[in-house]
Design brief:
heterotrimer; A alpha/beta; B alpha/beta; C alpha/beta; B: alpha/beta; Rossmann fold; five-stranded parallel beta sheet; three-stranded antiparallel beta sheet; 4 helices; 28% helix; C: alpha/beta; four-stranded parallel beta sheet; 9 strands; globular; binds zinc ion
């Protein structure tokens, strides 16, 4: 643990009245009236006008290591996460090799630890090789050093109803959750974009909403039937929202996430045929975006998760159908949520903290994150400037890849500082430290 | 070379009666030079050259009591300035049924200026057939040739500066007959 | 005219009529001894075909050559491209060659759009068929053919009734035809089994029907689309026999057409599937003429796109 002490002065905690925060020994040592904290031996940070939130937690990040280090590594992805205000990310299992053994998840966990910028919490695959046929050793991953609690075949759907049922049942033994990428495979063969009038005009194979909703409906019923916990990844349609809302009303233990891009962008962008807008699930209609925002605001959707999906230039600088699916998200998530939810009055900063930190940490059973900003709590924090818009420059991103759909777009807030257990990982908007910050 | 409307700073250099006299004189010269040959074909260059060609043909009929075949020759696809100017709609090319092979073709245009239009017309003719001879009749020769081309029959020579514009109006297309000049003669060659 | 021809929607009514009128003048040249015009001398037209289509490539090649352009045929299929050389690399090569126009055929919808707007090349892009998206020059030659037979070769197609039959879902010809024919005032009806009509077709500027027999009596032109037999395997229809019975044009159905009506097909035909051999070869079939008109229409397109004013960065020419 570090001996450094930080005094953050005049910061608005969750958008409320200003206060001073004293960070020492990895925890928030004191919360005092503004200007009241003693600065002796401490580094002072004037945070007048800044908002403090608990460090953000991303349930859905593709760090690409091992296997596609040309797109992203645990280290570069950690830098991107810190720059975006995150203190913990869940690293998806669709690497090469797939994270379907205790050995692989421990490797990812260890790489995250070495990078030292965010807590990298591996997600384990549900089935061997994401093959959808045989369960991976879920228990071994749960009891490994990585202590995996979230299991997902993300990128693929666990479409076999029996396998899904067994997975839901099995993870109860160690309080795990199955995070489902809901995509009926036969209805989405070679699908290129949201199915609707626009896909018909553009001549691109459609990805119908029903292919998501059919799986969400089935999984909700399965979870209800076996009394298990289900998490739905990247909900993208108004119909899925309705199914989840109804299930929650019945008491089903289901949680759901939405990506920043599904809160802001629509399928109209596909008319450019620019593959930077190609993503899975696809960008949907205006009406879907409105339903997703409303669901995030009323808590039907629990969390924002980035689905950060780095791809090298050659996988995007090509014709639409040949391009890879996915877009960057970590470094723009907070700005996008601010634009889609805060500027519109749908969420206040406390609500953002709940959806981007508290609830995702709880879903992933990450005890040290998503905690209140109070004395004695872990000093995982992000300071943002709500009055400093930032224009997205792909070349200036920390990620190894540049496939952001927001290039040139101005987002309303910027991340000023991020603290991981009391040590800054970002100061004045720049990533600092790294390996040296290790606890 | 074309304008349906005459701007305010325009001065008329030929009125309707003068145009009629000029075309009659050109018709006489064509007949005289043809020495009674019956293989004349008049090809007007669209748009106004076609109407002028028809009028000349009428006068030849009045003089000699015989019909001269009249057609039109569009030169758009033979222009040499496609890189610099927008693509234009094509205008009709109508070759009279007897064709042009071994005929004396008289090209008819409203204004002779740089000579590039006539160069293009000669190229176009070359792709259509092989006349015995090609002659050129114009209503107005305004000078400033850029190619070694001259007219065989000229309605009127009108010295101009390059900054001026020559407007030819014909009743069939513009509702009145007139030749007018607009612009300033003192802005020579800028 | 815009600088590129990527979609039939790029043409407003005036543009479309300009292309058709220009093509009509150029068609006369086909009848004379010297078929060549000097118009595009010194300009380079590249035929970039990522997908086999000998007929379309030859048509564009003839069009470019009759305008005296230098033609480079870049058949990407079976060359390095299919082994992973990207559209971008190919485009950069063409740019280095100084292509004034790139005629592109690609199996991926939107590839011409990508080529035109990515900044990889400067020249004009002509879509010669992209995936299941569009084939605008095919729709122009179809409109040209209809205008000749149904509108005296002049003006638009106001009030003419066109029935397009078959696999609309996968047809770039149908998409471009619906857009262009609507621009020209024709009344288009798409006839297909429900499985072969795209989602959202009700938003297109046309009518739809599942019943071919109900429409033939009120049709000035019927266009039969190619139906690939493999579609049967994806359950779009139960069998070839059922398809051709319900949606094929045979002699009995042809007899219901008004006397002046014409039969069209963009080719290549599946004789016995969507069209009976005796219909394809009937006097009212204009299928062979469609091919000839293709050259004139493509000459018009190349001429109008390569007019000089489009050389800047503006989009209007
Ligand atoms: Zn996914």
């Amino acid at each position: 643990m570090s001996n450094d002490t930080y005094v953050i002065r005049h910061v608005s905690v969750l958008g409320g009245d200003p206060a001073d925060l004293v960070l020492r020994d990895g925890v928030i040592a004191e919360v005092t009236a503004p200007g009241a904290a003693s600065a002796e031996g401490a580094t002072e940070i004037d945070a007048t006008g800044l908002v403090a939130l608990p460090g953000l937690v991303d349930l859905h990040t593709h760090l690409r290591e091992p296997g596609r280090e040309d797109a992203e590594t645990v280290e570069t992805g950690s830098r991107a996460a810190a720059a975006g205000g995150f203190t913990a990310v869940f690293a998806m299992a669709n690497t090469d090799p797939v994270a379907d053994t205790a050995g692989t998840v421990e490797q990812v966990w260890r790489l995250g630890h070495e990078a030292g910028l965010v807590d990298v919490q591996p997600v384990g695959a549900v089935t061997l090789g994401l093959g959808g046929r045989q369960l991976a050793e879920l228990g071994a991953m749960a009891t490994s050093a990585a202590q995996v609690r979230v299991f997902s075949d993300d990128g693929r759907c666990v479409h076999d109803a029996v396998i899904m049922r067994r997975a839901l049942e099995y993870v109860k033994a160690f309080d795990g959750v199955v995070a489902q990428h809901a995509q009926e495979p036969r209805l989405t063969e070679d699908a290129q974009m949201n199915e609707g009038p626009l896909s018909g005009v553009l001549g691109l194979r459609g990805w119908p909403a029903v292919a998501e909703e059919a799986i969400v409906a089935r999984d909700v019923l399965l979870a209800e039937h076996v009394g298990s916990r289900l998490h739905v990844c990247h909900v993208s349609t108004a119909g899925s929202v309705e199914i989840i809302r109804a299930a929650k009303a019945r008491g089903v233990d289901v949680t759901a996430e939405v990506t920043p891009h599904h809160l802001l962008l629509t399928e109209q962008l596909v008319t450019s045929y620019d593959p930077v807008y190609k993503v899975n699930p696809p960008l949907r209609s205006e009406a879907d975006v409105a339903a997703l925002r409303a669901a995030l605001a009323d808590g039907t959707i629990d969390a924002v998760a980035t689905d950060h999906a780095p791809h090298p230039v050659e996988d995007k600088d090509c014709e639409w159908s040949a391009a890879a699916m996915g877009m960057l998200g970590l470094e723009t998530a907070l700005g996008v949520v601010a634009e889609a939810m805060v500027s519109t009055g749908l969420l206040d900063w406390a609500g953002v903290a709940d959806r981007m930190s508290v609830r995702p940490a709880r879903i992933g059973r990450l005890d040290g994150h998503g905690r209140p900003i109070a004395a004695g709590e872990p000093a995982n924090l992000v300071l943002l400037d709500p009055t400093a818009p930032r224009t997205v420059d792909p070349a200036a991103l920390q990620s190894r890849s540049h496939n952001t759909p927001y290039a040139g777009r101005t987002l309303p807030v910027s991340v000023v500082a991020t603290f991981l257990r009391g040590r800054p990982t970002v100061l004045d908007g720049a990533v600092v430290g790294g390996a040296a910050v290790r606890a | 070379m074309s304008a349906a409307r005459t701007p305010d700073d325009t001065r008329t250099v030929l009125d309707g009666a003068e145009i009629t006299r000029a075309l009659t004189r050109v018709a006489h010269e064509i007949v005289e030079r043809a020495k009674g040959a019956d293989d004349l074909v008049l090809l007007g260059i669209p748009t106004r050259g076609v109407f002028l060609a028809r009028r000349i043909a009428e006068r030849i009929r009045a003089i000699e009591d015989r019909d001269v075949p009249v057609g039109s020759l569009d030169i758009t696809m033979y222009r040499d300035d496609l890189r610099r100017a927008p693509a234009r709609a094509l205008l009709p090319t109508e070759i009279p049924p007897g064709g042009i092979d071994d005929k004396v073709v008289v090209l008819v245009d409203d204004v002779l200026y740089s000579g590039r239009t006539i160069r293009a017309a000669l190229d176009a003719l070359n792709d259509i057939g092989r006349p015995r001879a090609v002659q050129l009749a114009v209503l107005v020769d305004r000078g400033h040739r850029e190619l070694p081309i001259r007219a065989d029959y000229v309605g009127k020579n009108i010295p101009t500066s390059k900054s001026e514009k020559v407007h030819v109006l014909v009743t069939e297309h513009d509702g009145a007959d007139a030749v007018a000049i607009s612009g300033h003669a003192n802005e020579e060659d800028q | 005219m815009k600088r590129h021809l990527l979609s039939a929607a790029d043409l407003d009514r005036d543009d479309a009529l300009l292309v058709l009128d220009t093509a009509a003048e150029l068609a006369q040249i086909t009848d004379r001894a010297v078929k060549k015009l000097p118009t595009l001398r010194g300009r380079t037209v590249v035929n970039l075909f990522f997908e086999d289509s000998t007929r379309t490539r030859i048509s564009f090649e003839a069009a470019a050559k009759r305008l005296s352009a230098d033609v480079i045929n870049f058949s990407a299929k079976g060359s390095s491209v299919s082994k992973g050389e990207s559209l971008k690399d190919t485009a950069l090569t063409l740019e280095a060659m100084g292509a004034d126009a790139v005629v592109i055929r690609h199996s991926s919808s939107g590839a011409p759009h990508r080529l035109a707007h990515s900044g990889w090349i400067q020249g004009s892009v002509v879509n010669a068929g992209d995936g299941t998206h569009e084939h605008p020059t095919q729709s122009l030659l179809d409109a040209f053919t209809m205008r000749r037979h149904l509108a005296g070769g002049k003006g638009d197609l106001e009030g003419r009734r066109v029935t397009i039959v078959g696999d609309v879902l996968h047809s770039r010809v149908a998409r471009s035809n619906v857009l262009l024919l609507a621009t020209l005032g024709a009344e288009v009806t798409l006839v297909a089994p429900p499985t072969l009509l795209p989602v959202g077709v009700e938003t297109w500027p046309c009518a739809t029907s599942y019943d071919l027999d109900a429409h033939l009596k009120h049709t000035d032109a019927v266009m039969m689309l190619r139906v690939q037999r493999e579609r049967m395997n994806a359950a779009f229809f139960p069998s070839e026999r059922e398809y051709s019975r319900r949606y094929g044009l045979d002699a009995r159905r042809m007899a219901q057409l008004p006397d002046h009506a014409i039969v069209m097909h963009p080719g290549p035909m599946n004789r016995g599937m969507e069209i009976a051999a005796e219909v394809a070869d009937a006097p009212r079939s204009v299928i062979v003429e469609q091919v000839a008109n293709g050259v004139s229409v493509r000459m018009a397109v190349l001429y109008l796109l390569l007019g000089g004013a489009n050389l800047g960065d503006g989009t209007e020419a």
